[in-house]
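Late entry, evening session. Most of the bench is empty. Finally got around to the prediction I had been postponing all week. Sequence below, unchanged from the version circulated by S.P.
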Amino acid sequence: MCEVGTRPPLAAERGEPPGGAAAAAAERCRDMGEQPIFTTRAHVFQIDPSTKKNWVPASKQAVTVSYFYDSTRNSYRIISVDGAKVIINSTITPNMTFTKTSQKFGQWADSRANTVFGLGFPSEQQLTKFAEKFQEVKEAAKLARDRSQEKIETSSNHSQESGRETPSSTRASSVNGTDDEKASHGGPAEAHLKSENDKLKIALAQSSSNVKKWETELQSLRESNARLSTALQESAASIEHWKKQFSACKEENDQLRGKIEELEEQCNEINKEKERNAQLSRRLQELETELQDKELELEELRKQGEIIPELMSECESVSEQLQAAEKKNKDLEEKVRTLRTEVEENKHRQTTLKTELKNFLDVLDGKIDELHDFRQGLSKLGVDN
């Protein structure tokens, strides 16, 4: 029989490619008399030995699970290997029962291993095939046990018949033979029959103890199934509780996403306001430049106005030119007044724009502070979760 209780050599130690440990273990079992009769893939679990309620994953991913038949001992086993680790080594007995607890999950108890194995399958069809094979193998194990008991009973009957026939042959030899012949023939046969009878008595005693042991195992399995049923109900209630918790968290997450979208829209509005503010700043700079140009032009006109009286004293002969100059001066003064009015209006407008800009910047700073506080709250909420 293939020994799966010890650790097989690692794939690197055997010179095999990684992932071939299960195939190598199956090959070793075939070489030593065991043959795989059914193979599938499933996630393997074992019951928590401390609580006897929760399932503990025995494999990180789906692994190969196989039924093996040992022709030398006429026994069946379920074997599964994950890498270099044997996670299932369960000999099937007629008292075992495979129970479907859901559409894709089944379990059975192994009293020899003192644990309960669980298998999660990708589909309900695979679970059904595995359960049918389990029932078939269990019936075969029961048939093998019955045949073994029949052989023991037949051997016992043959031994008793041989024991009854021996005295008659001994008596015949005592009649027809000498005392030396009786000593040489009768003694060893009786010793052999006595030895055979002792062996049969031991075998019957072992059978009786095995029956008691199987009855104990059956009771243990029933208790284990009751505990597992209770654990399954508790797990179902826990699943409903966590489903409600998940729904509440999902609803809260949707609300937070809505708030984030609103904040993003507000950020877009703030960016637009910043862009408009930048445009107003550029327009204000242009107006200030125009105002400086107007002031320089006004200064030039003032300088020209100071030169006019001197020109009038020197150019009395050119009165017509002076009148023209005076007219031009009046026109210029009118322009100056117009420019001054425009300058005052521009100054007033600039003051108004600066006031509006300052108010806008104050509102913008408040919005930015609120956004920063909200982001810190979101970050803290993410860390708490």
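Two things to note before I forget:
The first strand starts at residue 34 and ends at 47.
The beta strands are 34-47, 55-57, 63-70, 75-82, 85-91, 99-100, 105-110, 115-120.
Will write this up properly tomorrow.
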